[in-house]
TrEMBL record:
Domain of life of the source: Bacteria
Keyword annotations: Membrane, Transmembrane, Transmembrane helix
Protein name: DUF4386 family protein
Transmembrane annotation, as ranges: 54-75, 87-110, 130-155, 162-182, 188-206
Length: 212
């Protein structure tokens, strides 16, 4: 039965929203402000002025999470049809994206707790907790390293003739970088390469979805 293109468009949306969420979380920068460095109270007060950015981050990240799951399911089904019955590629691909979805879900999980408290009265928030929260959303949602495993899986599939070679090599480069970040102390750097790979891969997969 044809899959259509909905799942691929979901992947494209997840990648774009992943980039938007990353930009928004980067704008929540109270904890990185040199003027407030080491001063938990000052950091909390500045964080209270950045609630719109926090909400933008939360919304984009959670929408990306939902769309990523839809894309993962569609990709898994297509890979099963295009690779050998005993291939590890489909399972690896969906597992990698699952890791990203979990990181997004957990990464945005504290935003409601802090956003509403900061909006009502910054004094309701323990300053040290606010500092931790700012560090949390500046790292955990950026853990896109699992997408590197999916990129490498697509490279393997392309080598077997399942996809165009350019898609395979692109997945090797961006997926490989994301996978390297996954095992390094700079895991959050994958938040730059992972969403970019997803956008490029989704654009390439639109053609294969039409062929199916």
């Amino acid at each position: 039965m044809p899959l259509g293109r909905g799942w691929v468009l979901a992947g494209l949306g997840a990648g774009v929203l992943g980039i938007v969420g990353g930009v928004a979380s980067g704008m929540v920068n109270a904890v990185y402000d040199p003027a407030a460095s080491g001063d938990a109270v000052a950091i909390t007060e500045k964080l209270a002025t950045q609630v719109p950015q926090i909400i933008a981050f939360h919304t984009a990240t959670m929408l990306s999470c939902v769309l990523l799951v839809l894309f993962a399911v569609g990709l898994h089904r297509q890979l099963r049809a295009r690779t050998a019955p005993d291939s590890l590629v489909p399972g690896t691909a969906v597992a990698g994206l699952g890791l990203v979805a979990v990181a997004q879900l957990i990464g945005a999980g504290l935003t409601t707790e802090f956003a509403f408290a900061l909006t009502e009265d910054a004094g309701l928030v323990v300053p040290e907790s606010a500092v931790f929260f700012n560090h949390w959303i500046g790292t955990i949602p950026w853990l896109w390293g699992g997408a590197g495993l999916t990129g490498l899986a697509l490279f393997r599939a392309a080598r077997q003739g399942a996809y165009a070679s350019w898609l395979g090599w692109t997945s090797l480069v961006l997926g490989g970088l994301s996978a390297l970040f996954l095992i390094s102390p700079l895991q959050y750097m994958a938040g730059m390469t992972g969403p970019l790979w997803l956008v490029v891969a989704s654009l390439g997969l639109l053609r294969t979805a039409r062929e199916d």
